[in-house]
Amino acid sequence: MSSPGLSSPTPPCAPEDVRRVACVGAGVIGGGWVAHFLARGYDVTAWDPAPDAEQKLRRLVDAAWPALTQLGLAEGASPDRLTVTATLQEAVADAQFVQESAPEKLDLKRDLLRQLDAAAPAGVVIASSTSGYPMTDMQTEAADPGRLVVGHPFNPPYLIPLVEVVGGERTSADAVAWSSRFYEVAGKSVITMDREVPGFIANRLQEALWREALHMVANGEATVREIDDSITEGPGLRWAFMGPMLTFALAGGEGGMAHMLDHFGPSLKSPWTRLEAPELDKKLYDAVVAGCDDAADGRTIADLVAERDQGVIDVLRATGRLRTQGEAK
Amino acid sequence: MSSPGLSSPTPPCAPEDVRRVACVGAGVIGGGWVAHFLARGYDVTAWDPAPDAEQKLRRLVDAAWPALTQLGLAEGASPDRLTVTATLQEAVADAQFVQESAPEKLDLKRDLLRQLDAAAPAGVVIASSTSGYPMTDMQTEAADPGRLVVGHPFNPPYLIPLVEVVGGERTSADAVAWSSRFYEVAGKSVITMDREVPGFIANRLQEALWREALHMVANGEATVREIDDSITEGPGLRWAFMGPMLTFALAGGEGGMAHMLDHFGPSLKSPWTRLEAPELDKKLYDAVVAGCDDAADGRTIADLVAERDQGVIDVLRATGRLRTQGEAK
């Protein structure tokens, strides 16, 4: 989506040299970003228009700090390196990277990004935590839209590694590459998308699951508790370390994904969810099988089965759920 | 769904007294059940019509045994307590519980359940591993449909605790209750459903996610690897120990699920997945909020946040993914 031809001032420093990060919006997500950047040893300035924002933010950081300490703090990391400013302009005046985490309202985001662009030093990349708006729709008011990217985290940003990075039509390719590298340096796990898709990747997947869950509750088919238990005692145990595609491939036995699609492909027509399935034509079949081969990265089915088994055991042990005979609830 | 009024012979022993289990169908799922029951100390008989079935089954059990040993074997548990029989009738002749795991073909399941019902001792409960057929549709040919239940496991059945238990219209309530208790005694985590829903619970949820993933691959929006990474580095880390509903509640900050629905409810209208959302009316809103309160079971939002944080750290540590500053990929 991003345009290599658009000229935008170069970021004033390399991703590896960033020391000062500004977080604008300090609710659950913005505050989580603050905690993450502090733990990684950055100086953080934060601004939020809510009257009790500073108090809530410092409480959030304090609550997260024991977890962050267990994860391992960067040298010199401290909650004391947080400065809450009175204005947006002060927050970003000296920043080398800006993370925006305002409420999900398009007009608000547009105007805020315009203000951030006006106030931040030239070339500094400004990333939005938006959970769904395409940057193309948000960058309309900014004087330099080239430095505006989406950097979408997961809650809580100080623990869940994933950040989805994607530019809008007017974002420079340099800003996308710079921010992907910056997040990696800052300890995140980055997926850089080459096109804008509403909801990005992980949110589309979890949103499909969430909507099906809401339908089940609405129809009295399952309770909230049953829905949660069905995941934590079931497929969720695998998804912590092996994604849905590769784990599905293992349902195909020694034949892997191809056998799985042969075997379970017809069930795509079953009314197992309200979501209509795509046609499983040869092109999709081949893409899924080849994609699994790529993701397996040389690991055989037997390797993957051993890895999955060990992973499930490790996760069960880590979460205190090793079961032995007779331990019925 | 099950009818308390239907009379069916009583199971010949209590769930706690079962010693001999028959597994009919010995592919990935059936073989996984064999491994599970062996590890839990049962005598297991197995039958599968495939010519190389015994060899494959013994290979699967051998491959699973190190994992099962780590999980903790029941006293006297041994792969030597597996007998592969030449006929279906021999497999079930002495069984105190029967687990059917044949391919997902309705006609085949119907006929197989008829044969199992004819061959198994009176009253012995026969459970089907079907991943989607309602028992009402499968129990049509059996002389005693009352003892036929669905006991739907997740792959691999020897590691993933969840079993979804549900009867058909002609299943006795006693058979449902007996099998739920039996699975618990045998070390599984049981959700007993009171009505038949195509795909049960967890499969509907993971099928929604799977179909959205297939659409994304079909449209070139994400690769298989990106889809998997987006889960394992993102929401999957939470789902190993806290379900999607409760984790979503935490996105609402100190306001919990109610605040989350106020904040993100409108995004149900966004084109974030191909799955249409239900109308978030007051009834659904209240059901979700009350369901979360029930699932939270007295834990405050702060308790849940602390639990989630510790869980994610434990899972990251268990799967070798603690990140520290500068460890960029």
Automatic annotation (TrEMBL), chains A, B:
Q: One GO CC annotation, please?
A: cytoplasm
Q: Which reaction does it catalyse?
A: carnitine + NAD(+) = 3-dehydrocarnitine + NADH + H(+)
The record's section on Pfam families has: 3HCDH, 3HCDH_N
Domain named 3-hydroxyacyl-CoA dehydrogenase C-terminal: which ranges?
A: 199-285
Positions bound to NAD(+): 25-30
Q: In which pathway does it act?
A: Amine and polyamine metabolism; carnitine metabolism; Lipid metabolism; butanoate metabolism
What InterPro entries has UniProt attached to this entry? 3-OHacyl-CoA_DH_NAD-bd, 3HC_DH_C, 6-PGluconate_DH-like_C_sf, 6PGD_dom2, L-carnitine_dehydrogenase, NAD(P)-bd_dom_sf
Family per similarity comment: Belongs to the 3-hydroxyacyl-CoA dehydrogenase family. L-carnitine dehydrogenase subfamily.
Name under which the protein is recorded: L-carnitine dehydrogenase
- According to its UniProt entry, this protein's organism is Streptomyces finlayi
